[in-house]
Amino acid sequence: MKYISTRGQVSPTGFIDAILMGLADDGGLLVPKHIPQLSDDTLKQWQKLTYPELALEVFSLYVNNEIPRADLKKLVDDSYATFRHEDVTPVRRLDNGRYVLELFHGPTFAFKDVALQFLGNLYSYVSRKTNSIIHILGATSGDTGASAIEGVRGKEGIRICILHPHQKVSKVQELQMTTVNDANVLNLAVEGTFDDCQRIIKELFADVSFKHRYHLRAINSINIARILAQTVYYFYAYFQVANKEHADKISFSVPTGNFGDIFAGYLAQRMGLPIHKLILATNENNILARFVNEGVYQPGAFRGTYSPSMDIQVASNFERYLFYLYGEDADTVTSLMAQFKAEGRIVITGDVLKRVQADFSAYSVENEECLNTISAYYEKYSYLLDPHTACGAAASDKLAAEGEVTVVLSTAHPAKFDEAIRLRNISQTYPEQIQALFDKPQIQTVVGGSNEEIKKQLVTFFN
């Protein structure tokens, strides 16, 4: 399997080089040159697999023998041995046709662990095998940072710097990042929004000489390994629900801000998983919902919400979808992204918009609706949703047809967002691992939002 850039100016590259490159050197995003196509027989065989066994089969399609199968199996087994549930990502039935896919059983209680436990081990493996330096640079709206740090903390040959928007993540998210005292970890709290953090990351990776000089590697979902890892739980959940419901129409409702989680579902669908509908749920920062419903991709005013991990105006994985929307035409994608940079908007109409609306349904959830959904599910099902999952549930309630089987992706444990849940007078008990964070000292550096300030911190840390 080779990987190509959405902008077409990078020679096809192998899996390991692709994950090391992160952002393509031409400023685009890497995608597989060909999407593997799965037969009905293969899907039938995969239904019987455990989660690690299924992950091994999916990764094998994309690694293409660059990593010996025995080594790949160990990477997968080690990554998912850290999860608290034997199913890794269990499916919970709430009602007829209503399911929740619990993605929060990893070390940091967030769905990002599914990909980042694997990517952390993969980077460590590559560092050992190639005797190379791995300097990880990432931005987080809350969960990626903690998951990425947990995946590589203390590992030889790896250093990691994470940017997060200062005082714009939940307290537990902040503590999970900033109470880590390993020497190979640097937390920078940026005075600005997540979009500022993400812009800095992309611009630093686009500075190819700086990127190569300091051996920068990506941990955000611009890294194709993140997307590939997330496709696995769509397959796993589909098989679990199909076995219980004997249904041939199963939809997924996905809370998303950066378009990575739902793009993984789109990729699984393109591989042959017969997903009926992909429902895209946003909060009030609804650039993606507006794009699906109106054909306009244009940032609006930033809104702080109860689901801060989705407080994103510019979705870093959107370009990957554009690539497939326009028939893998890199020239068109390059032109559209140049237009977006110059004018701040992309507008599509006609048949192209119809294709988007065939691929996704979308709904934007307002703050009060999010909290009301938490209350409603707690009262009806005795099941506590975190605010991001509540956005997915609200979108499912709004857009799923009567009697349709729908799986809502639960992206985080509710304990990570107790500030929002307490607004509905619901009390919860923190898991022991989270409760312990409040007694630990924090280690972080508050910085301004300029590239030069971040560069200065990185040069000191990585030298």
Automatic annotation (TrEMBL):
Residues 85-405 form the Tryptophan synthase beta chain-like PALP domain. Gene3D superfamilies: 3.40.50.1100, Threonine synthase, N-terminal domain (3.90.1380.10). Its EC number is 4.2.3.1. This is Threonine synthase. One of its GO terms (molecular function) is threonine synthase activity. NCBIfam families: thrC. Catalyzes the gamma-elimination of phosphate from L-phosphohomoserine and the beta-addition of water to produce L-threonine. GO terms for biological process: threonine biosynthetic process. It catalyses: O-phospho-L-homoserine + H2O = L-threonine + phosphate. Its cofactor is pyridoxal 5'-phosphate. The modification N6-(pyridoxal phosphate)lysine is found at residue 112. The lineage of its organism: Bacteria, Bacillati, Bacillota, Bacilli, Bacillales. It is an enzyme of class 4 (lyase). It holds the Pfam family Thr_synth_N. Pathway: Amino-acid biosynthesis; L-threonine biosynthesis; L-threonine from L-aspartate: step 5/5. It comes from Paenibacillus validus. Keywords: Amino-acid biosynthesis, Lyase, Pyridoxal phosphate, Threonine biosynthesis. InterPro entries: Ser/Thr_deHydtase_PyrdxlP-BS (IPR000634), Thr_synth_N (IPR029144), Thr_synth_N_sf (IPR037158), Thr_synthase-like (IPR004450), Threonine_Synthase (IPR051166), TrpB-like_PALP (IPR001926), TrpB-like_PALP_sf (IPR036052). It comes from the Bacteria. Residues 2-80 form the Threonine synthase N-terminal domain. Belongs to the threonine synthase family.
